[in-house]
Amino acid sequence: MTGPSLMEMKSDAPHIAIFVATSGHSGVDRLIKHLVPAIARRGYVVDVLKVRKHGPHLDRAGNRVNIIDMGTSHVYSSLPAVIQYLKGTGPVAMLADKDRVNRTALLAKALARVETRLILSSGTTISIDLANRGTFERCLQRFSMKHFYPSANNIIVTSGGVADDMSAYTGLSRERINVVPCPVIPETLLLRKPPRPKHSWFLPGAVPVILGAGELCERKDFSTLIKAFAKVRKKRECRLVILGKGRQKERLTNLVHELG
């Protein structure tokens, strides 16, 4: 584990750990960028446990935020560093997100034998997310959620629908799953009037625009949106704008060209 030493991280203020490994441009990245400073403003020291080659990428960490390099580019191989961190720093709580990270966090806490409260998070509809995965991956996630997740102090998801799906698909008790809305909208967005785009497509009286936003990945299924738009456009004039980054950008661009 590299980054601030354990002595440097020691503080009179309680520590909260954030353990995630993201694509670098997903909704979880945006969530973490808003959540970390908000927790720090409430008097906690926030330790972001960073897996190399993964997000989140925090431009401005702040004085009460530590970015701690786990020394590896894979979630599972970060286990020894997470154990060392838990033993050395003893955070009051650790928030983990997504199944691979959640499993690592569960094992790390068990091996570290610490009193840290562990909160596991999932923001996707599990049955849909796993539909195109291999049999082993589907079985592994269903088994771990049903049998391992209950040992966490809390399990949170972003909506009631996600909670119901997780319970039905994995067999995890619905009573153990709590709904916490995703904090992706910062206060600054609510306090100011957003500027109107200057592009001609968005001027009053212009052709209707359909807007899609999100990571350009398989689970967002923007290909269905593009195909549907192509059919609608045959019946009425309209335009489509998709905002996002991701591995499927080239594939989606090719689909647009194919459909004309």
Overall shape: globular
Low-confidence stretches: none
User: What spatial order of strands do you see in the largest sheet?
Assistant: 3-2-1-4-5-6-7
Task: Describe the largest sheet.
Answer: 7 strands, parallel
Any guess at the CATH architecture of the largest domain? 3-Layer(aba) Sandwich
Rounded Rg? 21 Å
Task: Provide a count of the helices.
Answer: 10
- Report the average pLDDT across residues: 87
**Secondary-structure element order, N to C:** HEHEEHEHEHHEHEHEHEH
How many structurally independent domains? Answer: 2
Report strand %: 15-25%
Brief description of this entry?
Helices cover 38% and strands 17% of the residues. The protein is built from 10 helices and 9 strands.
Report on the architecture of this protein:
- With 260 residues, the protein is of the alpha/beta class.
- It folds into two domains: 6-187, Rossmann fold; 195-259, no CATH class.
- The chain has ten helices and nine strands.
- The protein has helices at residues 6-9, 27-41, 79-89, 99-112, 126-129, 135-147, 160-170, 187-191, 222-233, 249-259; strands at 15-20, 45-50, 65-69, 93-97, 117-122, 154-157, 177-179, 209-213, 239-243.
- The strands form two sheets. It has a seven-stranded parallel beta sheet, with helices on both faces.
- Helix 3 packs across helix 4 (99-112).
- The protein is globular, with a radius of gyration of 21 Å.
- The mean pLDDT is 87.
